[in-house]
Amino acid sequence: MSEVTPDNKGNQGGKTPYKGSQGGKTPYKGSQGGKPPYKGSQGGKTQQQGGRPQRGPPLSPAQQRRRAAEERISKWSPKTELGKMVVSGEVTTIDQALTSGLPLREPPIVDLLLPDLMEEVIDIHMVQRMSDSGRRVRFAVTTMVGNGNGIVGLGRVSGKLVRPTITKALDRAKMNIIEIRRGSGSWESSTTVPNSLPFEVSGRTGSTRVTIKPAPPGVGLVTNQVGQIMLRLAGVEDAWSFTKGQTQTIYNFASAMFKALEKTSTIKLLPGQGDFHNMVKGAKQE
């Protein structure tokens, strides 16, 4: 038997070259029998029919934290006595939770009682320390929470990663929430709406001293950016602030103002003073 070697170039049954032949593999563009392009063809693969489903707009970090909080609530099983009372329905408002005398140790309690809580991250900075093995870097995060209606909280946590540390700082702020007392304490004010504070209060952290004085309607929040965020989250519309000491340290300033706002609910009032200054504690009842 004789061996027959196929000739690729001259044989009709052999494999034809890529370009310039009808029976071979046609090029991608400009050919009828080739593979149609992805877009603009009826037989092609489209996103709506068989492709990957279209994604919505990306979520902001605040929306991502809110979704994570909702998932945490759905999987949450209370361990403290206050948490069990909230789940059973014995405690339905944040005022009842704060006046119950039980410690607030679970952030999902606040998520259930205050679904419209607003969150703010006011400071993120690195904290370094030297050790035998080298330099250790951590991140210190300061956050605020509030509903804009007499509820405000402050938290500060340090950690190795930024995003988990922000979540922990927000949980710390939720567990440190307080109710403040608002009113129209300015002698220039003639309104019955509690737009400011009922009286002058002051707080101190380190060398930073902050004094908040009530103001009439229309003045606004006369303070720095950190103070404006805290007062707005607390529901204060008009106020003057006076500071002393090293006010550039963000956490010290925020902590001093937080302590000043806390004094509005702890100071004892004279008989009839609450009605005279149109005071309201915590959330205003519509």
User: What is the string of helix and strand elements?
Assistant: HHHHEEEHEEEEEHEHHE
Q: Helix segment count?
A: 8
Query: Could you list the spans in which at least 5 consecutive residues all have pLDDT below 50?
Result: none
Helix content: 25-40%
From the helix content, strand content and strand pairing, which structural class follows? alpha+beta
- The CATH architecture of the largest domain is 2-Layer Sandwich
The CATH topology of the largest domain: Double Stranded RNA Binding Domain
Q: Span from first to last CA? A: 106 Å
Compose a concise summary of this entry:
With 286 residues, the chain is an alpha+beta fold.
Which structural traits does this protein have?
four-stranded mixed β-sheet; alpha+beta; 286 residues; Ribosomal Protein S5, domain 2; 22% strand; four-stranded antiparallel β-sheet; 28% helix; Double Stranded RNA Binding Domain
Kindly describe this structure:
The chain has helices at 61-74, 81-88, 94-99, 107-113, 162-175, 225-234, 250-266, 273-276; strands at residues 118-131, 134-146, 151-159, 178-179, 181-182, 201-205, 208-214, 221-222, 239-244, 280-281. The longest helix is centred in the last third of the chain and has 17 residues, at 250-266. With 286 residues, the protein is α+β, with helices and mostly antiparallel strands. The radius of gyration is 32 Å and the shape is globular. The protein has a four-stranded antiparallel sheet, sandwiched between helices. Strands 6-7-9-8 form a four-stranded mixed sheet. The chain has a two-stranded antiparallel ribbon with strand order 5-10. The mean pLDDT is 82.
